[in-house]
Amino acid sequence: MDNAKFQWDSCHSVKSWAGHSLVISVTSKYSQGGMDVGTSDFDSGKWSGETTPQSSPSLGPATPAKPARPAAGQNQQGEQELATKMLQIQSKRFYLDVKQNRRGRFIKVAEIGADGRRSQIFLALSTAADFRDHLSSFSDFYASLGPPNPESMPEDGKLKSEMMIKENRRYYLDLKENSRGRFLRCAQVSQTITRGGPRSQIAIPAQGMIEFRDALTDLLDEFGTDDGGFKGELPEGRHMRVENKNFYFDIGQNNRGIYMRISEVLQVKSNFRTAITVPEKSWARFRDIFADYCDKMKDGSTSGATSGDKASSSGTDIGPGPK
């Protein structure tokens, strides 16, 4: 085989309706380094390879398939982007994206450093409003400081600190100073993880705090400070007793949405408790499954109505009882 480039053509015939055939010519390039199949652009749906469909006149021209893409402004997780702002502060870029999902609206703040490293935090709109107010306070404090003095620098570098709490998240705001200058570090920590666990944080150069605050204010003026989601009063918990078991149905809400916690307490020697958590979006499906089992058990007990009546009078146990 010659090392120089050459072309290989092949034709394939595929039978179709009423004896007609679709002829597809495939032209591929081979080179010394192997097969060149072209390049693809997944964002635009374009393909630069040289696969050329042709057809017989009876079938008409073939139409290339286009890849399916999410609707504009909405990703596959159901999040919709409502607005975005970009800030260039010194060597860093900050993106403030207002997003919305079934739990409400929030702002994603992404920091991209000069080396391309990316970090981000998430703020509910109400939390973003608190953050904006803290930025004003930190900016005033920063303006009152004199020039940096390495001899009077605190050991931990902290000049001023505040904390925000939103549901199960804590935000630690620290105006710090090091050899590179002064900056505001905002760290987001989930209270559901163990102490010392991972945290997300961004660092805003102190000179850009006012610009950052103004951009945040523009977004809040447009979209408000209402997080959205469920705002009504949650239903009260329910309780039922079946023989030596107690079942508790409690409704709660966190940053992920509304849920039902079903607890089973076995009153034998000591109160042994187990529980499951069911997201609100699954309640209807759970109800349908339970209703289906109830109907099937009712149909199956038609021939034994007498024994069924006796069982119902003493209560129905869910799952095997203790031996």
From TrEMBL:
Keyword DNA-binding assigned: yes
Record-linked InterPro entries: PUR-bd_fam
A molecular-function term among this protein's GO annotations: RNA polymerase II transcription regulatory region sequence-specific DNA binding
Cellular component terms (Gene Ontology): nucleus
Keyword Transmembrane helix attached: no
Domain of life of the source: Eukaryota
Annotated Polar residues bias: 49-58, 300-316
Gene3D superfamilies: 3.10.450.700, 3.30.2450.30
Pfam family of the protein (one): PurA
Region (Disordered): 41-80, 299-323
Sorted UniProt keywords: DNA-binding
SMART domains in UniProt: PUR
Composition-biased stretches (Low complexity): 61-72
Protein family according to the UniProt entry: Belongs to the PUR DNA-binding protein family.
Protein name, as recorded: Transcriptional activator protein Pur-beta isoform X1
